[in-house]
Every structure is written in C-alpha cells, then in structure tokens.
From TrEMBL:
This is Glucosamine-6-phosphate deaminase. GO terms for biological process: carbohydrate metabolic process; glucosamine catabolic process; N-acetylglucosamine catabolic process; N-acetylneuraminate catabolic process. Pfam families: Glucosamine_iso (PF01182). It comes from Streptococcus iners. Pathway: Amino-sugar metabolism; N-acetylneuraminate degradation; D-fructose 6-phosphate from N-acetylneuraminate: step 5/5.
C-alpha cells in the first residue's frame, strides 16, 4: 500500500487526478466510482479538466435501497451533480435503488460488473472501516448484494436527512471481491473521524472486522489521507 499524506482535499484530489490521467492514457476503459464527501474535490478537478470520458464506462460502488434520482440523497443524483452532467461517459452504471425486484437487480448488476472489469477504482472509507457499504463482518469473497447498514453508518448518514426515519437502512453494494478485482485502487480519507479506520486499515491485521484491511492484500493500492486521518499511524 502506498500512503500519501496531504495537507487538504485539494492536494489529495490532485494526486488522485494525476493517477487517473495516467491510467486513462495507458488505456483504462472502466472506472469504479464512489460517492461521499471524500471524492468531491476529485470530481471537481475532473469537471474542470479537459479529460474526455466519451469512450469510458463507469460502475458505481453502491446505492441506497428506496432512493432514486429524484432524491437528492441518492447516489445516482450525487454522481450526476458532481460528474456525469458535466462529463458525458460512454455508459454509467449504478445499482437501481428503486428496483421492485431486488434479486433481479442484483443479477443485473453482478452481470454488469462481470462484463466491465474495473481499471481504476475510487474509494472512501467509513468510520468503521467499511468500503462501499461492506460493513464489518462482510465476507471478503462477497459480490454485489443487498446489505443492512450498520447503526453507526445510519447515524453518520443522518446529518443528510431531515427526518431520522428517512435515513435508509439498506443499500445495494458491490462486494469486497468486486472491489479487489480492480486493477488500481485509490482510497481517499480526510479528517480525525477516519483516524482509527485508517490505522486499522494500514497497520492492523487483515480481518473481515475491518473491511478496508483487505486492501493490504491488493498489489496496487494508493491511500491519500490528510494529517488528521493519518494521526494515529505509527
Ligand atoms: C458512505 C459510502 C462510502 C463512503 C463513506 C464515507 O458510507 N457508501 O462509499 O466511502 O460513506 O463517506 P465520506 O467520504 O463522506 O466520509
């Protein structure tokens, strides 16, 4: 794992942007994308760049069950707002949180993932070490499925919703096996509330109790973190 400690998101995003640019120049065709606050500046730098995605496909990590593009808290809304409206891709794939038949939706999304192996995957990390919505205990062999969100994740997400009852309790998420099959993985994390998760990811044992710790087993992972997120590293 390569670790970059940066001053702020702008500096971190610039590093991620450079890696993306190199991978695109080297022929990357499929990007694995993430939502959350951590990649916002990265997407801004892409929007402001002259990078062209018209021959590039994207697949997203996850989506809340019950939310669709009409909801400003859905991940499809987020992606349009931060990237897709400004940068047209060849195709954008996200799990459909409004699917009436979730089993059929999982079959559809797993087939998409199988047919579009990811060249470059962006990740954030939850305070409990989750990646995508693979919460502690998720199998390292898992593929896309419906997951119950951990109480701490529901609580962390509550700030985005007016009513606590509106905070989704389930999501469709890529599994850890899907994430690990990406050729290059760039994980960004900022702030003190990520310090424990980052320490466990980088220095802890590889355990399903800390989903991101599995990244130690991947050969091309770049961690971009600020000094607060790095503050508990040895
Ligand atoms: C959510 C998303 C994750 C993301 C995490 C951290 O749980 N499903 O993909 O990494 O939030 O979000 P943030 O970057 O806002 O801290």
């Amino acid at each position: 794992m390569k670790v970059h400690i940066v001053k702020n998101q702008v500096e971190g995003a610039a590093i991620a942007f450079d890696i993306l640019k190199q991978k695109l120049a080297a022929g990357a065709q499929v990007l694995g994308l993430a939502t959350g606050s951590s990649p916002i500046e990265f997407y801004k730098q892409i929007r402001e760049s002259d990078l062209d995605f018209s021959e590039v496909t994207s697949v997203n990590l996850d989506e809340y069950v019950g939310l669709g593009e009409d909801s400003d808290q859905s991940y499809v809304y987020f992606m349009k707002e931060h990237l897709f409206n400004a940068k047209p891709f060849k195709e954008n794939y996200l799990p459909n949180g409004l699917a009436a038949d979730l089993d059929a939706e999982l079959e559809r999304y797993n087939a998409i993932l199988e047919n579009h192996p990811v060249d470059f995957q962006i990740l954030g990390i939850g305070r409990n070490g989750h990646i995508g919505f693979n919460e502690p205990g998720a199998s390292f062999d898992g593929i896309a499925r419906v997951v119950d969100l951990a109480p701490s994740t529901i609580e962390a997400n509550a700030r985005f919703f007016e009513n606590p009852e509106d905070v989704p309790k389930q999501a469709i998420s890529m599994g850890i096996a899907n994430i690990l099959s990406a050729k290059t993985i760039v994980l960004m994390a900022y702030g003190q509330e990520k310090a424990d998760a980052i320490k466990a990811t980088v220095e802890g044992p590889v355990t399903e109790q800390v989903p991101a710790s599995v990244l130690q087993n991947h050969e091309d992972v770049v961690l971009i973190i600020d000094e607060s997120a790095a503050s508990k590293l040895a």
